[in-house]
Amino acid sequence: MTSELVPVIGLEVHCRLKTASKLFSACPLRPGAAANSATDPYTWALPGTLPTVNAAAVALAVRLAAALGCEVAEESGWDRKHYFYPDLPKGYQISQHARPLARGGGLEVPDPEAGPWATRVIALQRLHLEEDAAKVHAGALLDYNRAGAPLVEIVTAPVIRSAAEAARVLRSLRLLLLRLGVSDATMEDGSLRCDVNVSLQRRGSSAPGVRCEIKNLNSFNFIERAVTAEVERQEALLAAGVPVTPVTLRYDPARAAVQVMRVKETELEYRWLPEPDLPPLRVDPAAAAAARASLPELPERTRMRYCVLGLAPIEAAQLIDEPVLGDWYDAALTSLGPRGPALARRLCKWLTVELIGRVPPAQLASAKVVPAALAELVRMLECGEVSAPAAKQILDLLVEEGGVPGGIAAREGLLLENDDAALTAAIVEVLRGYPQQVAQYRAGKATLWGYLIGRVMQVLRGRADPQRVHKLLVVALQSPPPGDETI
Amino acid sequence: MTADRAQIVALSAGELADAVRTGTIAAVEAARAYLAQVEDTAARLGAYVRTTPALALAEAAAVDAARARGEPLGPLAGVPYGLKDSLVTAGVATAAGSRMLAGWVPPYDGAHVRRMRAAGAVLLGKLALDEFGMGAHGDLCADVPEDRFLDGAGGERASEHARMDMSGRTFAPVRARSGAEGGADAAARAAARGGGWPSGHPREGSGRGEGPRGAWSSGHVPSDSPSGAAGRRWSGPSNPWSSGHVPGGSSSGAAAAVAGRAAAVAVGSDTGGSIRVPAARCGLVGVRPTWGRVSRAGLVAFASSLDTVGPLARTVDDAARVLTCLAGQDDADSTSLRAPVPDYAAMAARGRGDGLRGVTIGVDPAGLAGVEPAVAEAFAAALATLVGVGAAIVEVALPDPGQALAAYAALSAVEAVSNLARYDGVRYGLCVPKDSFAATAAATRGAGFGREVKRRLVLGAWLQAEPELLARARAARATATAGLQAALAGCDALASPTCAEAGVRVREAVLEDSLRAGRALVDLDVDRFTVAASLAGLPALSLPCGLTAGPPALPIGLHLVGRRLEEGRLLAIAAAFEAATPWRARLFAGPEGA
After folding, report:
1. Stretch A478-483: mean pLDDT, rounded?
2. Which CA distances in Å does B509 have to B136, B228, B236, B247, B249?
3. CB–CB contact B107 A46 (8 Å)
4. Torsional class of A249: left (φ above 0), alpha (ψ -120 to 50), beta (otherwise)
5. SS3 B312
6. Residue B551 preceded by cis peptide, ω within 30
7. Is some CB atom of chain A closer than 8 A to the CB atom of B507?
8. Where are the beta strands (DSSP E) in A157-211?
9. What is the mean pLDDT of residues A31-43?
10. Helix or strand (DSSP H, E) at B387
11. B578-592 residue pLDDT tens
12. What is the structure's pLDDT at B36?
């Protein structure tokens, strides 16, 4: 019976916008500042203070809405959401309830079950602005630094099909936020927070199940585990013939279980009131269009580009999931110009295997080796200007001292010699040391080929391409070894 | 060169500013005259909850110094004024008539004190009001005996805060350490706030008087003032025309002070009629501007979509001058309007000079049912006067006042619940500590709010859970707004009496508790002529149009409503009317001269 039930999951994600000041006052946002030092009369809700909208926060929210393909309302409204708790200085939170900043749109997320490069679009219901609450510390102490910080809330449609997909949606959203530069999007510091709505629906039925909400999930792993636990809890209830009641839950990581916090609030209990202290929020359609026009390449488009460049799915994922790595890669790729596509795969390997083996991603930005240097090294390798072992040696030095690979290669004598006359002279010089063996070889003792090329390579190792040495040695000895078809 | 006190307080604000500008009267002289007047009338009027004599003298001296340096002076140079105590003043306790905020010293200046100071006006002190502006008569002010409150319960309160902070059992803000780790910026701000920041709590021990600026003396009205003192049933300011009649609310102290010569002008606030009703009762000109014309930044909020700030003055010209200074866009209030501010005094002067030819004034005869005969007579005479100076009277149908009053009662209560939610005892103001946040908030609110405020909060909280009733109230507001707009499409202004009755006896106002519910309905009806303009956000004013036969002779108010942002036209009509009637001279002379 329970096998007929499928989970229907929706997310409500809050992300803190990266602005210099709060949503409704000029009070600076100073992460890490001493408790209650980043406050002003409005933050404390002192009598007589009024909200004024931070245009920078609106601009970031519009940029995000544009990236998500939402329809940005020319005019949206502000509403007061009431609840009595000391983290809410005014006794209400200014949010956008009846008329959100943006509606619709969707978030493209990977769909690995459908194929390595497959994606699906998670439909969004709305995107709106609201102010953050204060932080409650142990001992019932309050820090109002965070109160009034600008948040964007994004509500997905209830279309997510599994716990794993819920975590993927949040990961994709995080990458998008980082790519857009609108939020630090870090779950650890609360700049990205997630509530999950879970219900069970009979397969093929359109009747919605009873929805329960898991509040304040603060890590990707917890989301997956919490949703799994909640699906199991609801399945167990229904299997026992107990109806699911709408409750608000909390995830307890220690027990890997969800706990009922309270019976779910209805919208009525928030006593929504149109905000009389603020005029409607107007967004010029031209500004929304400009936001769309100025979007960077979004992560899923990047993934497709990597696919076309011939990267393996896992390589593309590695670059996309670690934005520092992806940005570094793209910078290196760009510096290769038209040669880029041909070298893309090799460049990826050299970045994700060789360079990351030497420099952790977090330190890439401040490393001495720059993207163009790695790209040039890969190009030299590809063009036969350096050998693979020499390239690794050069990379060590690039990491240590920076600079350009050509210069290091020349200084260290690691460039492959590609002047045939010079190489021939060097070969002849070596052969002069072994007149007896040369004479014997020329007389037909073919087994001496190995001995002779060994002597030559010993001298020329690292400076010349073995293939080319081979050819020139044949010429120098005026006859190839038996069975050699290279001439 | 020197003028005596009687001469100074007999001048209108405009005349006084002109005298200060020409050097006939020094601003400090004017301030001293009014401060003496304030002190002498304190016992009789009870208009001020807090006076600021040191500040007044400092502001006046600054005006005189600017004049001595040859700098241009502001339009209200040297004019001593009072501010309703719901208008926030940095360093001067602001309590909005509530025990909840007793002793709260704001760390910032509201738009009104800033603009008045910029215009050269001199702050005499803070004026009594019905708690949070909720009252029709002026008797619901917890603030009148505030000094007693602070000396007694206030001390208790300070120690409660300390206990609460130490116990750690209930919610309290983490104390911000100012200075070193906050950087120079924070240190400077902490210094500017006198260390009372960030909680805005008054400094323990001496929360009053010495504000952040240090130099201000408390200058309290003597605490044995009969107004509001223990043993007296009437707990609000007195009507200077009759101690047996209410001054009208909620800007009761503002009206009492200006009519009683204890301020040249005053700044009040009007939600449903709180400037116009006391102006009518005390024989003054009171202007409620278009919603958004004057910033609300620094007004302790009651019902935000209805709250406005405006002047109370003895003459139309004075009201126009103050309004010119107060009006205009303010970055601190997003709902303030960007429309340019005209010179209202000049517009009033044109009305006075040119008369009202071509001006049509709408009257709804049906609305006059139930009006006291003396008021009806005065109103009829006022219409005749208006016709006499060239105006045409047209009949209009105005929105049903019953519907408008019900909508007002509902919507203002719902907004009040929201605006007053911040008073939870955690960050500032009164705190009655208990073991949990919910218990602390409940105990604090129980002790801090007066009965009328609680009544409205209960009503508002109940309505918040009744969306259908709220929708009906909003629809009634829209109907009233459309009704006024339709009426104003056919005329330049709407005229009515300001109040249906010429006076309300004090003992009628102060009913026994058991009759309070009945009183609420009766009180609501006081606003029957004023509330529609409030709902519609339209400008309105009250000006004197007569006196009852008496004794005691009581002023009667004429109410005018205009189109959006047409305060200037209303003031022109008022000025023409004022010039054509004896009321300005008779009422200006005040109760003693009448």
Report:
1. 59
2. 9, 15, 11, 11, 11
3. yes
4. beta
5. strand
6. yes
7. no
8. 192-202
9. 93
10. helix B373-388
11. 999 988 777 777 676
12. 97
What domains can you pick out in chain B, each with its CATH number? Answer: 5-410+467-593 (3.90.1300.10)
What type of residue is B325?
A: C
A24 at interface of B, judged by CB pairs closer than 8 A? no
| Mean pLDDT of the residues in chain B | 85
B561 near B484, Cβ under 8 Å?
yes
Rounded CA-CA distance B329/B442 in Å is 38
Q: What is the pLDDT of residue A119?
A: 95
* pLDDT tens digit sequence for B174-227: 765 443 333 333 333 333 333 333 333 333 333 333 322 222 222 222 222 333
Whether B429 contacts B153, CB under 8 Å? no
Write down the pLDDT at residue A145.
Answer: 95
pLDDT for position B219 = 28
Residues of B within 8 A of A90 (CB-CB) are 421-422
Q: pLDDT band at residue A480, thresholds of 50, 70 and 90?
A: low
If you write DSSP's letter for every residue of B6-26 in order, what string do you get?
Answer: HHHHHS-HHHHHHHHHHTSS-
Please judge whether A45 and B418 are an interchain contact, meaning their C-beta atoms are less than 8 angstroms apart. Answer: no
Helix ranges (H only) for A243-387 are 285-293, 299-308, 313-321, 323-335, 340-349, 356-358, 361-364, 371-382
Q: Give the type of residue at B11.
A: L
For CA atoms B127, B128, B133, B135, the dihedral sign is negative
Does A142 contact B106 at a Cβ distance shorter than 8 Å?
Answer: no
Model confidence at B169: pLDDT above 50: no
Known catalytic residues of B? Answer: 84, 250, 274
Question: CB–CB of B212/B91 below 8 Å?
Answer: yes
- Residue from B265, B314, B249, B323 nearest B540 by CA: B323
Range of weakest confidence among B130-134, B147-151, B236-240, B474-478: B147-151
Banded pLDDT at A462 (limits 50, 70, 90)? low
Among A334, A373, A384, smallest CA distance to A350 is for A373
CA distance A336 to A344: 9
What Å distances lie between residue A483 and A216, A346, A436, A449, CA to CA?
A: 73, 33, 23, 12
Q: For residue A240, what pLDDT is reported? A: 93
pLDDT (mean) for B388-396: 97
CA distances from B298 to A379, B192, B230 (A): 67, 18, 31
pLDDT category, A453, cuts 50, 70, 90? confident
- Closest-CA distance, B226 to chain A, in angstroms, reads 29
Let me know if B8 is exposed, middle or buried by CB neighbors in 10 A (0-12, 13-18, 19+). buried
Q: Which amino acid is at B71?
A: E
Q: Which two tokens stand for residue A121?
A: 């679009």
Query: Which structure tokens are listed for A430?
Result: 């070596």
Token reading at A296: 């960077």
**Rounded CA separation A346/A355 (Å):** 12
Q: Do B198 and A268 touch (CB under 8 A)?
A: no
Query: Which one is predicted more confidently, A302 or A266?
Result: A302
Tracing tokens 């007389």 back to the chain, one arrives at A443
Cα–Cα dist B290/A266, whole Å: 37
Task: Tell me how far apart the alpha carbons of residues A270 and A265 are, in angstroms, rounded to a whole number.
Answer: 8
Distance (Å, rounded) from C-alpha B418 to C-alpha B460? 9
User: How many angstroms separate the CA atoms of B412 and B172, rounded?
Assistant: 30
**Does residue B336 contact residue B294 with C-beta atoms inside 8 Å?**
yes
> Taking the alpha carbons of A342, A348, A350, A355 in that order, is the dihedral positive or negative?
positive
Other C-beta atoms closer than 10 Å to the C-beta of B582 total 9
Residue A478 has pLDDT above 80, yes or no: no
Structural contact between residues B25 and B19, judged by C-beta atoms closer than 8 angstroms: yes
Helix (H) or strand (E) holding A151: strand A150-156
Q: Which two structure tokens, joined as six digits, stand for A52? A: 């004024």
Query: Could you report the predicted ipTM of this complex, rounded to two decimals?
Result: 0.87
* pLDDT at position B149 over 70: no
